Every structure is written in structure tokens, then in C-alpha cells.
Records
---
Amino acid sequence: EAQVTQNPRYLITVTGKKLTVTCSQNMNHEYMSWYRQDPGLGLRQIYYSMNVEVTDKGDVPEGYKVSRKEKRNFPLILESPSPNQTSLYFCASSPVGANVLTFGAGSRLTVL
Amino acid sequence: GIQVEQSPPDLILQEGANSTLRCNFSDSVNNLQWFHQNPWGQLINLFYIPSGTKQNGRLSATTVATERYSLLYISSSQTTDSGVYFCAVGPSSGGSYIPTFGRGTSLIVHP
């Protein structure tokens, strides 16, 4: 089944404790991206990647890192999480040029 | 940046009713998509429709790019149509794509 898989789906952590949210797709898509969804603010893009080793900032990249060492994986790294990063996070992928997004199921992160 | 406004913000329907959701955007775009977020939070792509009209079952969408709006039509609504509908717009060029999402229309369909 074609899908985007995110892990973990739920996580509660404490301020400053580094964490990684993984994202993997099995559709051979070149384009991958991360979003956060917050009440009243909607969905905002954090980072995107057009291919292996090619990443770029979205609208709200502060406090996040990404890497794209393999085509299928695009992890989101929070080096020193803070409470304002408490949010619902989505990973998405698309064939380049089409930009028709397929989303993962979401990861709900709480930073205490 | 591009401004995206969706209306109405909330909609309550009886099963079987029809509805029209609107997405206005402030600048020219070559990428527009409609998504449905179900009550469990899952985001499903409904249409990729930068211009023209498309239909998929009870759902159809029309984008008039020159007038900077898109409409999503839901006919004979069902309880499973409940959730939030988002439009996302943006320029996409050479693989680069940073979509701007609207705030969504929250739809509740009662049996």
C-alpha cells in the first residue's frame, strides 16, 4: 500500500530533550515536506526537500532541523524542544512537478 | 505572502443536503489542492485543481484562476463527510513548493 509513515504518533517529552520524528514513504517520491498544525493558525510548512541531500526552509523553520540522506526518509529533528513546539506534525510527499501531497497520519508532540 | 481565505468557517448540514465551500486567494498560483481532515486527524487529498473543473463521485471542484477563487461542491452529504476542509495554494516551480493553507471550513453532517 502506498503510504507515508510517521513515528512516533504520540510523544510527551520535556524541554531540551532532543527528539526525532521519522517519516518514510514507499512511493519513490522526490518531494517531501514537514508541517505543523496549530489551532487558529492552520497548517504551516517547516521544511521541504526536493531530492536527496536537497533541503530548504519553509515558513516556520526555527527550532527544527531535517536531513535527506535517502530518498524514502525525511526525519524531523528537534535539537532542544521548547513548549511552543507542542503541536500536531505532518509529513507529506509528492512526485516532483506534480506537487500533489500525500500526508502521513500525523504525530502529536507535547513538550512540557 | 499569499493570503488564503476560506468560507464559511463553520457549516452544519443535515444528511442529504448540498453545500458549497469557497477558497479565495490573493495572488496568482499554479498549484491549488483541496484536502479533507477527518475527525481522526487524517488529511486526505481530494483534488489537485489549479484551474478548471473536476469531479469525483459526490464531490466536485472548480477553480477560476483569473478571479482567484476555488469552489468545492459536496452533494448529497453523508455523515462521513464531516471534518475540516482545507484549500492549499502556492506557486510551484522546479520542484520547489511552499503551500499556504487556508484556515479551513469545519463541516458537521447530522444523520
---
Amino acid sequence: AQSVAQPEDQVNVAEGNPLTVKCTYSVSGNPYLFWYVQYPNRGLQFLLKYITGDNLVKGSYGFEAEFNKSQTSFHLKKPSALVSDSALYFCAVRPSTDSWGKLQFGAGTQVVVTP
Amino acid sequence: KAGVTQTPRYLIKTRGQQVTLSCSPISGHRSVSWYQQTPGQGLQFLFEYFSETQRNKGNFPGRFSGRQFSNSRSEMNVSTLELGDSALYLCASSLAGASARETQYFGPGTRLLVL
């Protein structure tokens, strides 16, 4: 069975500083990995995904994520955080053999960016 | 292109009642998945529909059901509501759900409160 862990409930960062949100996964076979962001009273917005190829994936709003197979990690990063990046971030995984819905989500990490 | 739409956005029901939630996918998307989001359990997969057929189902009791229409719109129904059914119900659509690499795009959700 696949699983996703986001070890930090909350990440606090000052505006302009680098932001990192951690994610580790466990899945049989090759993983497909996703990051979503959720603002208050909103649904999930897609940020980026890793399917295959380059380990560094670039996504929306200046976010990027690094896939590390040996460490089974897929950390989300942003070089310079903005106050507007304050939101709830979710990492999700699907095994390559599962094609019918069912994203497995982590518990989420609340990001707080202070001015 | 319009995003995923869900109606209603907010709903208050009492225990024992039933409820129907609606989801219209992005135009051209034929796969619709449903998720339940609660503070305690996080994001959990309910079921996925494609071409009016349920292809995958999560670990929820039979009180939770769904269907999909020929225009890909989907509804989910919860019968005999319990207090624990209070949650944000999210709908997501993807092109065909034929590959695990497809991105799911989420609607704003329906917030259900059971009293």
C-alpha cells in the first residue's frame, strides 16, 4: 500500500527567505508525485508533479520540487517566499500501476509566511 | 476554460437525513473522483467514475454512493447522515483517468455540516 508523510505540521518562514516543505513517500513500483496547495475555504490547486525524467520539477507560482529516489522524498521548494504563499500544502502519490483516481495524500503542512 | 464546479457550496443537514452533492468537471474531462476532507482524517478518496461506471472505491460505508451522467457530470449521495459526515467534499476531474500520470483538478468543494 502506498503512503505519504509530511513530517511538519507547520512551517514558519520570513518573507523573502527560502521555503521548503518536506514530503516522503512509500509506494510499490514507480511513484507519480504531486503537490497541491489549499487556501482557506477553497479547493486544492495543482502546483506540480513528477512523472519521470529530471529530478527537479518546476511548477506554478515559482515553486519547484526535487525528487530523490534513494531517500524516497519529494520536497517542495521556493527560493523566496511571499506572504501570499501562506496556505496549506499537500503532497500526494499514486503508483504507476494505479490509473483509476485515488491520490493518496499526506496530512498537509501549514505554511505561514510573515512580513 | 472553466474549472471544476460544485454545488451547493455550503449545506446544513440534520442526522438521519440524506444529501446529494453535484460536480461538473472541466469541459472534455471524463473522469471524476470524489474526496472527503476532515481535520481528523485528512483527505480520503471516496470513489472514481468514468463513462458512467464506478472504477474505484475507497473504504467508506455503503451510505456513500455516487453516479455519473453521460455528460460526465457526477453526483454523490450520502444517506442516513451522521455527525461524523461533516466535512468538505471535494470533486476532482481529469481527462480520462487512463493513466496514473494524469493531473486531477479540484473544485472548490461543498462544505457539509451535520447537526
